[in-house]
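Hi,

I'm pasting everything inline rather than attaching a file, because the server keeps stripping attachments. The sequence lines come first, and each chain or strand is labelled.
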Amino acid sequence: MAATEVLTVNHLQKKFGKFTALREINLTLHAGEVLGFIGPNGAGKSTTIRTILGMLRPTAGTVQVFGQDAWRDAVTIHRRLAYVPGDVYLWPNFTGGQTIDLLLKMSGQQHNAKTDDLIQKFALDPSKKNQTYSKGNRQKIALIAALSSDVEVYIFDEPTSGLDPLNEIVFQQEISRLKAAGKAILLSSHILSEVEKTCDTIAIIREGRIIEAGQLTELQHLTRINVTVTTDQDLTALSKLPGVHQFQQHQPAGQYNFAVDSDALQTVLQTLAAQKLTSIQIAPPTLEDLFLRYYDQGRSAEVTTHA
Amino acid sequence: MLKENFAQTGALLKINLRRDWVKLLTWFLILVGLLVGYAYKIGTLFSGEKAMATLVATLRTPAMIAIMGYIPDQPAITEAIIYSSEMVVFMSLFAGLASLLISVGATRGAEEEGLVELLRAKAVGQQAFIAAAWLENLLLNGLLFLTTGVGLQFAAMTGANAAGNWLLAALIAGSGLVFGSIGILAAQLTREGRTATSYSLAALGLAYLLRMVIDVRNHQYNWWSLLGWPEQAGVYYHNNWWPVVWQLLAIVVVLVAAMVLNAQRDLNGGLIAVRAGKTTSRFLRGPLTALIKTDQRSFWAWLIGAVVIGMMYGSIFNHISAIIAANPLMQQIVSAGRQQQAVTQLILNFMTLLSVVMAVLGTIRGQMLANHLYLDARQGYLELYFARPVSRLRVFSSYLGWAILNAWLVLAAGILGLYLGSAAVMKQPLALKYFIRIFSGYFGPVAVLVIFSALLLTWAPRWRQLGLVYTGIGFGIMYFHSLLKLPTWVMELVPYGWVRQVPVKTVSGATILSMIVISLVGLGLAYWGYRQRDQNFN
Ligand SMILES: Nc1ncnc2c1ncn2[C@@H]1O[C@H](COP(=O)(O)OP(=O)(O)OP(=O)(O)O)[C@@H](O)[C@H]1O
Ligand SMILES: [Mg+2]
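And the predicted assembly:
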């Protein structure tokens, strides 16, 4: 990769007393890259992010941002970084507008035209007191402060969990804008369509371990492809082939539905070519399939057959 | 309908007890320990006619009446009567404090944690939280009543009688319930638990001060104060049960008011709706200004409160001098010219105790602010700082600087009130220099205690409340050392003891210097601990 590395996490481990929240985390993020960080509840996403922000001290391993130590050089690093936490807690009795300005000032930034633009786009009423805002509106305040700062790295921890679909679109547009401007973005999320739309690379975390990381396109090879065929011939023999799963036959219309491991697709298609088909549909794997597969590991043995 | 309102009270009570049992047990042990322990000890502490006579003479001075309460004039003073006059006001105050803290925690505290919302959505009645909080109070005070009654029976002080023993136990438990109910009421009035605590503490403090001012002038009228009621009972000599009836009535009135308010307000809301405000602020620019703005209301409340408390204490100074001047013995011993001097000396002696009160007020304010470094981190406010180029040092010094500054401001405000109050009532007001002496003596110990809290916070956050406990112990030691005949070294266990002669004497430069050194070292250590820690104080 030509782009410079802005974030490097190496063998990160974090314990809270006896409890190990992070076992083995390795991550890299380059300028101009959008990294999606996904994983089930309690997997350690927020903990990893807080460690990157120098709020938590690593038990072992190193975390470097811009080549500097995340814990020791937090202040210098944070001049070039913006963050939106998953749960936004704001000082009571400040208005939203005051809070945005305060957050910007503390980042060494100014209230600018972009800020006003974002307030308008997100349709936020900045004159209300913080304690009277709804969850989504509190999140918007943190988002507006972060998105209107001009920095190199943006970190979002489930930024849209409280936003309605319209505001979510605004957020995605903003991400595209930042990406186009060559910024690095780390985005933790449970909303897969969002990650799929915006991210170049993803990292999947489970029980404190990064279990899969890479380009979204690369990872799609690891997963299964959904095939739907309609034919008047009998295809039950297909279910015996290696790499074919969830074989279903819908009687009346002669429709078959199954999933194929991507490396077995070749053989399956060759077998199919010998048959007379009325129609065939091949759907690329969605992130959802990928996600479910990793999340479910250990829960259902059936999926683990794929080596 | 009625039943629905209180649905699930029992289940809630169980949850409350599981959460609060350590708090409840600690308060219970402290209260019973003091009440029963002192009853057992009083005979040995003041054995012999002479010791008794000096004690009674001390207790009859206006300064002591102001602090402990009224002691009857009748000739036959017994151990039991001394005990009741010393204990009844103070233990009522303590029982009230314990109960109101528990009430606010069980009502507003739970609501702030979102617990109420979670449970109300289940089949929990609207008034069930109030009922459960009140029952928790009833449990604490009921046990207090029984244990104290039985304990006093066994202690068998001379001059005690069964009616008096049980009456005293009832009065103290009754005060606990009254202020516990007031705590529940306050929790309906405001949105934040902190404010509810402040309101109910203000009610408690006002009752105590009102009683003080009335007792010193004319104790007949002290039924104007909730804490004067226990005195009206005349435990062991009149054994008048009417005050207990008044207490019961007060509890009913306060509770009904709380339930009416609760029925009218929204969940998570107070009675006063929050208004919109300006969208910009020139003032806000970082952690310190944000802290100052959020703290604004407490800031003024503490300052004004301290001035008022000081003024109330100051306003009784003329009675002290008048009574001394009228004392025939005094007139015989001391020549007219020296009388003024003797009066001043006596008042200064009284002021050594009052200085501790002001210092404790300042310390508590400072320690509570220092604790915000922890609380705000847990609340998630600080996460927004630390994601920005804001250093640990900046946040630490903002919080601690503001805490120490406020501790000093409250101390100064209390002293100012004392000065203003005394100057208003005395024919020959005390010189300002004595008041300045109090400040220059006590600013050190106050800072040391606030920093002690900071050290606990950054090295052992689990034990952070010990700072306040230490202050409380310090107060007890300093306030009662003469009555309990504590040796000097015990007093020196708390920072207040290092300057105990203030304002009779000035504090030495060496003492001030050593306190400054202790403070600086403490601050350094606290910062070092803070620097090592995860920001959310795991
Ligand atoms: N301060 C703490 N003390 C102890 N354990 C903690 C602490 N913070 C987090 N944990 C634990 O660490 C694990 C990881 O938590 P984390 O908040 O990072 O999860 P997450 O992936 O962000 O989950 P979610 O999707 O629900 O936000 C959880 O099991 C959590 O209980
Ligand atoms: Mg999280």
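Chain B has two domains: 1-270, 288-538.

If the labels don't parse on your end, tell me and I'll reformat.
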